[in-house]
Amino acid sequence: MSTLGSFIWSIADQLRGPYRPNQYGNVILPLTILRRLDCILEPDRETVRELAAKYDNPNRLRIEVKKATGRPFYNTSNYSFANLLADADGLADNLADYIDRFSPDVDVFQYFDFKKEILALRDVS
């Protein structure tokens, strides 16, 4: 079994308390997507934060981010996977902030109702 497969199963083992196996996707899929987006956005994170501080208008921000990064989506949060755990006690709130600050066209987390899952995981820990 691959290292990645082992890692994913270790996460599933931790979810066994509050989740049944058919519910694992409610957490694993959004987290996998979130991690992938985090990796894509990492090289231009500071540029996007600077642009977000400069432009209040979301339409203008989208245009400026596209010009600067070549990507049609962005995240303006001060959080990333690299620093989310710095405040372990505030992890649920910080993760929710991170998800909320994606550009409006990144709606996958609403589809999964992922913020509800974050709160559920916080409440069982």
* Terminal CA distance: 29 Å
Number of domains: 1
Overall geometry comes to: elongated
The parts where pLDDT drops under 50 for at least 5 residues are none
The total of helices stands at: 7
Structural class: mainly alpha
Helix content: 55-70%
Beta-strand percentage? Answer: under 5%
**Number of beta strands:** 0
Largest sheet: none
Report the mean per-residue pLDDT as an integer.
Answer: 86
Write the element-wise H/E pattern from the N-terminal end onward: HHHHHHH
Pfam families: HsdM_N (PF12161)
Keywords: Restriction system
Domain N6 adenine-specific DNA methyltransferase N-terminal: 4-116
Family: Belongs to the N(4)/N(6)-methyltransferase family.
Which secondary structure elements does this structure contain, and how are they paired or packed?
Blueprint: H1 3-15, H2 25-41, H3 45-54, H4 58-69, H5 91-100, H6 108-111, H7 114-124
Helix pairs in contact: 3-4, 5-7
Protein name: HsdM N-terminal domain-containing protein
Domain N6 adenine-specific DNA methyltransferase N-terminal: 4-116
InterPro entries: D12N6_MeTrfase_N, SAM-dependent_MTases_sf, T1MK-like_N_sf
Identify the notable features of this structure and list them briefly:
single chain; 125 residues; mainly alpha; 7 helices; 62% helix; elongated
What does it look like?
It comes from Micromonospora inositola. The chain is mainly α. It has one domain (34-124). Helix content is 62%, strand content 0%. Helix 3 (45-54) runs antiparallel to helix 4 (58-69) and helix 5 (91-100) packs antiparallel against helix 7 (114-124). The protein starts with a helix and ends with a helix. The mean pLDDT is 86.
